[in-house]
## 1
Amino acid sequence: MVTLEFHDPSGSTEVTRPHAPRLPTLEGKRIGFVSNEQWQAYRMLPRLKALLEADFPGIEVLPIDAFPQGNAVIGSEETAALVKASGVDAVIVGNAA
Amino acid sequence: MTTNAVAGLGLAPDAAMVTFPIEMFLPGSDISPLEARKREFYDGLTGWRSALAGNGASAAPMIRVEGTSVEDALARANHLMLANRWGDGLPLWPPTAARVDWMLRGAAQPRRHRLGTFPPRGGVTTVESCAIALAMAGGRPEYLPVLVAAVDAFLDPASGSEQLQAASGSAFPVVIVNGPIGAQIRLNAGFGCLGPDPQRPAGASIGRALRLLQQNVGGALPGLGTMANYGGMRYTNVVFAEDEASLPPGWAPHGSERHGFGPGTSSLSLVFANGVTNIRRRGAKKETPEEDALQGMHRMAAFMRVPNMAGLAGYEHGAPGILMIPGVVAQTMAGLGWTKASMREFLWEHSRIPAEQLRRAGCPAWIEIDASKVARDSLAQDPWPITASADNFVIVVAGGGHPTNSYWLQGYSPGVVGRPLEVPPSFDGLLAEAERDLGPR
């Protein structure tokens, strides 16, 4: 028998930070959208907003344009700071890629 | 795709994500599936937990394959690499410890030297990672300095690789090498410099290794980690040397012009492109030398004057493309008083697009949402320049000594990143071994 032993070329990855903790419930929470404004986001995200508002008493869902929109800005530190300052409990990031 | 979307950020490689077929994202689509699956959104905000949470790096193990003969073991190793999505469909050298150690003789840095994390998957990328990819690609140790520098440039945020690795535009890296190392390691600068050449195989191996890193460490698998529609040029990318021996007097090498490297410095420049085409440059009848040059310049500029928004990706700091002209053309153009700078100015002025053409092609919408204020403000200009500055055009003297054609690599490059090349103290010995193995240069 001939044996070949070789490196796994995919290398290693590392986990340096945890995902954000989830909410115990959506009732009475404040939810925001961070939108790239593409791929029918202008239709889908308002629909999702309406669904959330219909299903969870006391929920506040911010308008989809509450934060800067567009691929060029949604990943910026400035947008992240605005989201934090808004006091939302969670955000939904959309839409597609 | 989910893995790539978050792992590159240092998060566990899963995420609360609700995915739908692409049809739902098209104009006029039926978005009712959104309501049917609303509970998945709610769960993502509440009950979802990462199944892969943990800390620290997960090291990749060595792989073991057995066969009844060398040929059988080699075949099994290749099958395994394809099954694990580590290959490109062409035969691979298994990156054994011995072969990787051989590649590492070309390293100027320690094997564990970290170059960064490869987007979008976030794979930890070291000099050893490069040596493994180069081994698989059939490379040689004297190629490693170019590959390591190319990876370092690729991982520079200014290159735009974080976006382009996963984007649909099928961008591929173009590596332009300047300085003596090009000829030393047999990088082609002449006839067929972008294609296979058994006596100058370095570009194919280096470019293939870079591609394997993009896929294996970076996670850019077709349709999974990268949405590149077509994926052109993704077997070997593009790696070539400028034909510096044919530069006319007064014409500086690309590395000096764009990055300020001193003449004679071995360096590279990394640019992203997503298209390649030949442009017929010379005339066919009784043109004077001046007419021949000017008509060729107009043909090239006209080819660039297309409202497809390719140059928008690097409007401010990148490149609308790379124009390759052969040395014999450069000599003729220089004799008529042209310089690289005056050619760039000409191309910039004559590739402008009338605003009406932009409008009817729907381009203003793309320009208005661009991240660059310079790009957004450019809409006020009529005709519209395809890039912010003439200096953004990359002109390189390369290709066979024949005057008929020039080559245009359509840019898709937020930046143009340069790197000086470092070689190990034993580099001359590696070149001598290459001479022994491959024959005289």
Note: Residues 316 and 372 of chain B are 7 Å apart (CA to CA).
## 2
Amino acid sequence: MAIAQAMCTSFKKELLEGTHNFKNSGGGTFKLALYAEGSGGKSSTTATLGATTTAFTTTGEVASSGTYATGGGSLTRVDPTTSGTTAFTDFADLSFTTATITAMGALIYNSSASNKAVCVLDFSSNKSSTAGTFTIQFPTADASNAIIRIA
Amino acid sequence: MFKVGVSQVGAVNVMTSDKGGLTNEQLADLAVDKIVSISDQAPPHIRQQAKAFREHLKKVLYHYLVLARKEERGSIIHILRSNGQKEMAEYIRRL
């Protein structure tokens, strides 16, 4: 599979090295970039993203359209917290409007740390908007569903 | 092997629209998904109750989303009329 949902292995190492800060106040700048499989991306390139992805790449990224600009949209951080023995963090939902986009997945990366990759999101199927809204809703921020969890 | 921890990535929900923004129905779905999540491991009667609550909540949210859009249009129409843009105000009123 060209896009496989995963927490990037390099990110796990970087967490131990203190590279990433998800705090709402003073944290890094995290971005979400959209990717296509097949001909949906720039220059008909196909994205290959997964656990081995280490940094943001333009290969397979969807083209700028509406409020989506290449490089992706900035995410609004939510302070990391814990529930039971699980630590997790969350982001506010992200929307791109008046956009014509076809995307199969996304990459969250830290643009204030040399664009280092955080995780890959697989949408399972192509999601398309035509001169419309493309919204990414993050899961409920709890120990079982949150976008980034460490149990 | 003794496993100290497991790191996981949650599943996102993607909602899209064509030729315009998301509908009231789509927005209600997004809101409900954010408020209510039902565990697969919950007992059947709890799941049933949670599903019923979810449906009720969606109807309430949908109603107020429709109302919110209507009220906002009303405010926009008032501003346009106050500034002499009667034709544009009428166009928005008919939306």
Note: DSSP finds one helix and eight strands in chain A.
